[in-house]
Specification:
Elements lengths: L1 H10 L1 H17 L2 H20 L9 H15 L10 H25 L17 H25 L11 H31 L4 H19 L6 H18 L2 H23 L10
Helix pairs in contact: 2-3, 2-4, 2-8, 3-4, 4-5, 4-7, 5-7, 6-10, 7-8, 7-10, 8-9, 9-10
């Protein structure tokens, strides 16, 4: 029986990997039908594994993977190229908002569990290490991001912002997407995966989804060299702090530098605060 249980545990990795592998299909290759096939195979495989068990105990992998899949399917329904017009920002709001709300509402009111939570504060004060990391994020962003965005040309994946109105819209958009990243990739995808897998494996799987989304959003060329460790660190920080407020703060500080670099790249001399 122990051998069979161990084999089942290993088998569950396959459907989870298939569902997460749908993210590169949706957001990197941008071939929707491959993503649909991978999602169907992953969720279907989880259902088959759970039906084959003599008894059911613990959270349902099939249900949790279906929640992750639902969020990805909603996000994949729109192009993720940054657009700052009213329609584009509305489209982002509806799709990204739906990708968080639908899994949360289904989990709570259909499946009747509280798998997805948004623990804003842990009740503990941030220590020196936490405050030090916030400073480090700003310094590292200031040193690395201008070189990445400008020398690779990826800043051209974002629209030109050459008026006060567009600059304000970019600021709102960058910040809003940064907050959403933590609500979906960490509090939804990562949290659901941790119900079934060790933290390290769950973190690696959520990173596939996180980095794939960022690729279509515009972090291309050698961007994954930056976004992969960032996604992994955000998962690790969340595990250590149990604080959505902290991971959001880290992300917003990073995105503040991203915003400044984009404005600088499109308007050389407007923000003369970077070495490059």
């Amino acid at each position: 029986m122990a051998v069979a249980a161990s084999r089942d545990a290993r088998l569950t990795i396959v459907p989870a990997a298939l569902v997460c592998a749908a993210a590169p299909a949706f957001f990197v290759l941008q071939v929707a039908w491959i993503g649909w096939v991978l999602v169907a195979a992953g969720v279907g495989g989880a259902i088959a594994i759970e039906r084959g068990r003599a008894t059911a105990s613990g959270p349902s992998l099939a249900r949790d993977l279906s929640l992750i899949a639902a969020g990805m399917l909603i996000v994949s329904s729109i192009p993720l190229a940054a657009e700052l017009d009213n329609l584009g920002m509305l489209r982002f709001t509806v799709a990204l908002g739906g990708a968080v709300l639908v899994p949360y509402l289904v989990s709570r009111f259909v499946f009747r569990d509280h798998a997805i939570r948004f623990p804003w504060r842990s009740g503990k004060r941030w220590g020196r290490l936490q405050w030090g990391w916030l400073v480090a994020v700003l310094v590292l962003g200031w040193l690395i991001l201008p070189f990445y965005f400008i020398t690779s040309g990826v800043y051209l994946n974002w629209p030109v912002v050459d008026t006060p109105n567009l600059i304000v819209r970019l600021f709102i958009g960058v910040g809003a997407v940064g907050i959403w990243d933590e609500l979906f990739f960490i509090c939804t995808v990562f949290t659901l995966l941790r119900r079934h897998f060790p933290t390290l494996l769950a973190n690696l799987l959520q990173t596939i989804v996180f980095v794939s989304f960022l690729w279509e959003l515009g972090y291309r060329e050698w961007g994954p060299v930056l976004t992969i460790p960032f996604a992994l660190l955000q998962g690790l920080i969340f595990v250590r702090t149990h604080s959505l407020a902290y991971v959001v703060t880290v992300h917003l500080l990073f995105d503040a530098v991203v915003f400044a670099v984009l404005v600088h790249a499109h308007n050389p001399g407007l923000l003369p605060i970077f070495v490059l």
